[in-house]
Design brief:
The chain is α/β, with parallel strands linked by helices and 146 residues long. The protein has one domain: D-tyrosyl-tRNA(Tyr) deacylase (D-tyrosyl-trna(Tyr) Deacylase, Chain: A, 3-Layer(bba) Sandwich), CATH 3.50.80. The protein is built from 3 helices and 8 strands. Strands 1, 2, 3, 6, 7 and 8 form a 6-stranded mixed β-sheet that branches. A hairpin with a 2-residue loop joins β1 and β2. The longest helix is centred in the last third of the chain and has 16 residues. The radius of gyration is 15 Å and the shape is globular.
Length: 146
Amino acid sequence: MIALLQRVTHATLRIDGHEYSRIGSGLVVLLGIEKDDDESRADRMLQRLLSYRVFADDAGRMNRSLKDVAGDLMLVSQFTLAASTDKGLRPSFSAAMPPDEAELVYDYMVARALAQPGIDVATGSFGADMQVALENDGPVTFLLRV
């Protein structure tokens, strides 16, 4: 499982030209689900996302997590993160989990995120063509794998 997380001041997700979801200060997470991923990996990734220290403390150091600052979380499925780009001029998606299975893992992770106290969660729509507008704060961007 691959997560590209970006610390943001705000973000909006649109589908078919209409606002689908939005968040304030927090994290936008683009989530790539690979063939071997399952619910236990989703749980581990979610805990990392909620606990990863990317927000500034009083001294300006990255010592606070999303849970610490009660920030918002936007989870967006993005199968292209599972692409192999090692060779050639076209990505290969052979490592990506098939869509029907990946949607189950994504839905599980969203449900687990929604159950977290103090965190507002927004999502995209699995498999949809989405436009995400965000203001990256810092900029701060990390690539996590579990």
